[in-house]
């Protein structure tokens, strides 16, 4: 029996134990997946709305489970964060993405930058700086080819710590992007203190931007705010030409979404880059 915060005695139900066991099993499997070769990165293009050029890619992790097939990040990143496995997983993502950037650079195919997602759990540990340094050193890629996507929630937790962590990352020369922008409450003053290259408007505002007036106002406000701070704006989850046209009219800089391409495995990304002739 365990005593919870309210002084009530609770007993583990068989159902709870089964769930805990399943979780533990998945955790063991995920640890194995990180050490083995079951993880892979897909890449989704980011397109400049004015020129139509592919200016960036975002790396998105997938887990090719030997029995369960392809598992999407939404189904294992939360577990990786709770268990701390997101730290070695994040190291793998960083190194793998940087090696791929190097390969595309060597082939004359690399777009301006490639972004990786960084979990708040990784950011709250000092280890991240070393991981980024290591990945840059090992691959020798120019730091500005790498972009880190940080969720807005990170900026809200411990502001002073977040500021120091971002300042250290900036000093390495990598680009910073704030993911899911608009869902949190990062203050203007805060964003002014550090150079943020990019804000990504959350998919929830983009989805019905052409029909929902209040979402359209939020998108307009984010674009104005971002531009006044010197950041570029990416709209994520753009699926229709109508959304793209609307966003272009609002002076949004870039779009990412199924309209241009779904996230693609490496070989298909390379073919995509060859087809568009990026340099
Ligand atoms: P996110 O960073 O906001 O990534 C965008 C998600 O939207 C991706 O889902 C992408 O496949 C999806 N998406 C792209 N275009 C469209 C579209 O037009 N319509 C719709 N409905 N969806 C679109 P995905 O790949 O399943 O990733 C989900 C989340 O998992 C990501 O959200 C990110 O928070 C997390 N994640 C993915 N890869 C990593 C990683 O390497 N490390 C960490 N820490 N988190 C990751
Ligand atoms: Ca980007
Ligand atoms: Ca992202
Ligand atoms: Ca998002």
Kindly describe this structure.
It is a single chain. The termini are far apart. Helix 3 packs parallel to helix 5. By secondary structure, this protein is α/β, with parallel strands linked by helices. It contains twelve helices and eleven strands. Strand 3 and strand 4 (54-65) form a beta hairpin. 47% of the residues lie in helices and 22% in strands. It has an eight-stranded mixed beta barrel, surrounded by five helices. The protein has a two-stranded antiparallel ribbon with strand order 1-2. The chain is globular, with a radius of gyration of 20 Å. The mean pLDDT is 91. The chain has helices at 14-35, 77-83, 86-106, 120-123, 127-139, 152-157, 159-171, 188-192, 203-206, 213-228, 241-249, 266-276, and strands spanning 2-3, 9-10, 39-48, 54-65, 69-71, 113-118, 146-151, 175-181, 198-201, 232-236, 254-256. It binds ligand C2E and calcium ion (3 copies).
Low-confidence spans: pLDDT under 50, at least 5 residues? none
Computed CA radius of gyration, to the nearest angstrom: 20 Å
Q: Strand sequence of the main sheet, in spatial order? A: 3-4-6-7-8-9-10-11
Mean pLDDT score = 91
Shape: globular
Bound molecules: ligand C2E, calcium ion
Distance between the termini: 62 Å
Biggest beta-sheet profile:
8 strands, mixed, barrel
Strand content: 15-25%
Helix content: 40-55%
Q: What is the strand tally? A: 11
H/E element sequence? EEHEEEHHEHHEHHEHEHHEHEH
Structural class: alpha/beta
* Number of helices, where a helix is a run of at least 4 consecutive DSSP H or I residues: 12
Protein name: cyclic-guanylate-specific phosphodiesterase
Domain EAL: 23-277
């Amino acid at each position: 029996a365990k005593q919870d915060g309210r002084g009530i005695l609770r007993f583990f139900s068989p159902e709870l134990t089964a769930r805990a066991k399943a979780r533990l099993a998945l955790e063991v499997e995920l640890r194995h997946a990180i050490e083995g070769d079951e993880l892979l990165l897909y890449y989704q293009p980011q397109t400049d709305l004015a020129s139509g050029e592919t200016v960036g890619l975002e790396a998105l992790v997938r887990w090719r489970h030997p029995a369960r097939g392809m598992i999407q990040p939404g189904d294992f990143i939360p577990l990786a964060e709770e268990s701390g496995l997101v730290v070695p997983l994040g190291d793998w993502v960083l190194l793998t993405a940087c090696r791929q950037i190097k390969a595309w650079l060597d082939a004359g195919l690399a777009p301006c930058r490639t972004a990786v997602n960084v979990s708040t759990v990784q950011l709250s540990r000092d280890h991240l700086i070393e991981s980024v340094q290591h990945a840059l050193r090992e691959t020798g890629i120019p730091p500005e080819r790498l972009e880190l996507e940080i969720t807005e929630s990170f900026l809200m937790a411990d502001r002073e710590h977040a500021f120091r962590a971002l300042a250290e990352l900036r000093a390495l020369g990598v680009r910073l992007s704030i993911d899911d922008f608009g869902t949190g409450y990062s203050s203007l003053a805060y964003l002014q203190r550090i150079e943020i290259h990019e804000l990504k408007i959350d998919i929830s505002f983009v989805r019905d931007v052409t029909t929902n007036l209040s979402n359209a106002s939020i998108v307009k406000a984010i674009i104005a705010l971002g531009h006044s701070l010197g950041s570029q704006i990416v709209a994520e989850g753009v699926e229709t030409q109508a959304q793209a046209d609307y966003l272009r009219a609002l002076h949004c800089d870039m779009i990412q979404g199924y309209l241009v391409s779904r996230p693609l495995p490496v070989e298909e990304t390379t073919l995509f880059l060859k087809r568009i002739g990026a340099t």
